[in-house]
Write a structure and sequence with these properties.
The chain is mainly alpha-helical. The chain is built from 21 helices and no strands. The N and C termini lie far apart (70 Å).
């Protein structure tokens, strides 16, 4: 009796715990890892007597991600971009240390180029461009007043960034790791089952137009996301690196597969709207074997063993389909030219769809081997934005650095360097987002929240405590709150705003100064620069300007023509 009453409760507790671990548990693990890496980096920076432990914390907040592969990738490109940016800026300081105007012009040109690169590339290369511009600003603007310290400042910043990168990668790999490789495998196995259900519903005409469009957009987005997972997983596991060519090929074949089915579905829908049910009925015997083959795979993960069996069945089905198509065409008898053309088009698309499924399943099955001939795949998928839009983003960033720099020089505001530096950093960080003004406004809101916390902590709490342990305890609620906001897509801009600007202005340096007026001035500069940046991004060559949208539409039309007619490999033809 007791056992029967206890076991259901224990089972319910176990299921509830697992459900929590898959949902909110992931969020709290991420918050724990962010706080652990941040405090470890801060402690090491203080023990090593690096001048600015806050820089190490900011780096942790920027590179930390829920999955370890993304942390490793961002850390690598963070170091690469920082090294390039520091080298360029030290060179500019050496050349133009005595002339602020020439220095400002050259810095605006470099930052504009970096921002254009960040807006152009939609992968980790864009992130490296962001860091090359941002880190150059971090050193270059303060160095305009003390150029003799520029080289040592660059060395300190690089050491602080290296400490933060090391702590982030260590914590991400050791504490409850969530690997990108596992996410890649999961996405890869689940994707085909979802597509099989989508394909079956389309062949059976159970898809409404809205569901068909939503499904097409979903699978296209997943293809881009899987490419990002492939790139990140190469940093944490040698197995995806050995299969990188096959994974890229698999993604390309999946996009070919979705394109082929889209063409077949649109043709069948047109015939249905025209009332050509007789023609659809004529081709249906050729479609039914494919439906029967895919039905057991509906919404089911496609394992490597399943893919191998599917490839064998599809090879046989390809031969059977050719015979079925010839028989169906013979049953049509003598028909008009238009009917014959529609039948041949439907049959050709169906046959090629089966062939595309066969190629996809062969590549999927080949993942079982470390080395395979299908690894030889020379086509790269490089997500790039429109060149004109990227150029506009670069010009906008260059104009803004000139404007903010001129304001600093003319007003001689003590926090003008902070004002200009932060504005340029924000412009670079939001350049790759779909809606830069919105993200900049959210970051401004985060900076405003950080200013409230920072002034309270910096003026009333920090002077009353002693030791690193107490420092961690009094700042932990703010860092946990900011990390929590980062996990919510709706508030994605607020989280980095809270974390970065609280750490940037309020965390003590190794030579700690109690400067209330300087702290308040810095927060005024931070919030004001964020608001002005958001306004200027929306006004100076705005990304949603009508003339720019017209150019983007024209470029998209040219891409369609190119996809149809260009003599390039792997384009869907026929």
């Amino acid at each position: 009796m007791n056992r029967a009453s206890v076991l259901p409760g224990a089972e319910m507790l176990r299921r509830t715990t697992l459900e929590w671990a898959r949902s909110d548990g992931v969020t709290w693990v991420y918050i724990l890892k962010v706080m652990t890496a941040a405090y470890l980096a801060m402690w090491l920076a203080m023990r090593l007597e690096l001048p600015s432990p806050s820089t190490a914390c900011v780096t942790v907040f920027i590179v930390m991600q829920p999955q370890s592969g993304h942390v490793f990738a961002k850390s690598f490109y963070r170091l690469l971009g920082s090294l390039i940016g520091l080298t360029v800026m030290v060179t500019l300081v050496a050349l133009f240390a005595q002339e602020r105007v020439l220095f400002l012009l050259s810095a605006a040109l470099w930052i504009g180029l970096c921002t254009a690169g960040a807006a152009r590339y939609r992968d980790y290369r864009g992130y490296a461009c962001v860091l090359a511009g941002y880190t150059a600003t971090l050193i270059g603007i303060p160095a305009t007043t003390l150029p003799e310290t520029a080289f040592m400042e660059a060395i300190w910043r690089l050491l602080e960034i290296s400490v933060a990168v090391g702590c982030s990668t260590l914590v991400s790999a050791v504490i409850l790791p969530k690997t990108t490789t596992a996410a890649l495998h999961n996405a890869l196995y689940l994707r085909f089952g979802a597509f099989a259900a989508f394909l079956l519903d389309g062949l059976r005409r159970k898809l409404e137009r809205r569901a068909f469009v939503a499904g097409s957009v979903r699978f296209s987005s997943e293809a881009v996301g899987l490419e990002a997972l492939r790139a990140a997983s190469s940093f944490e596991d040698p197995h995806p690196r050995l299969r990188s060519g096959r994974l890229a090929r698999l993604n390309s074949e999946f996009m070919t597969l979705t394109t082929r089915f889209h063409a077949l579905h649109q043709l069948r829908e047109r015939l249905h709207r025209q009332g050509r049910e007789d023609l659809l009925a004529a081709i249906q015997p050729c479609v039914e074997p494919l439906e029967q083959l895919l039905e057991p795979l509906r919404n089911r993960p496609l394992t490597i063993e399943d893919a191998a069996r599917l490839a064998e069945r599809l090879e046989r089905l390809s031969v059977e389909t050719r015979a079925a198509i010839r028989a169906a065409r013979a049953r049509l008898g003598t028909v008009d030219e238009e009917t014959l053309l529609d039948f041949d088009s439907s049959a050709e698309l169906l046959y090629r769809l089966i062939d595309d499924l066969h190629n996809y399943s062969l590549t999927h099955a080949s993942l079982a081997a470390h080395r395979h001939q299908r690894e030889q795949w020379g086509q790269d998928f490089t997500p790039k934005a429109n060149l004109l839009a990227a150029t506009v983003a670069g010009i906008r960033a260059g104009l803004m650095i000139l404007l903010f720099g001129a304001f600093w020089i003319l007003t001689a505001w003590p926090s003008g360097g902070m004002f200009a530096l932060n504005a340029v950093a924000v412009t670079s960080l939001v350049s790759s987002s779909p809606n830069p003004p919105r993200i900049a406004l959210q970051m401004a809101g985060g900076a405003a929240i950080a200013s409230v916390f920072g002034i309270v902590v910096g003026l009333f709490v920090l002077p009353q405590i002693d030791g690193f342990t107490m420092l961690a305890l009094v700042t932990a609620p703010v860092i946990a709150f900011g990390a929590f906001l980062c996990t919510r897509p709706r508030w994605a801009g607020y989280g980095p705003g809270v974390l970065i600007f609280f750490a940037f202005a309020s965390l003590p340096a190794n030579r700690t100064l109690f400067d209330p007026s300087g702290l308040i001035n810095n927060y005024i500069a931070l919030v004001l620069s964020m608001l002005v940046s958001a306004a200027l991004i929306a006004v100076i060559l705005p990304p949603n300007a009508p003339w720019l949208w017209r150019r983007l539409e024209r470029d998209l039309r040219r891409r369609v023509v190119y996809a149809v007619s260009a003599p390039a490999q792997n384009l869907v033809t026929g």
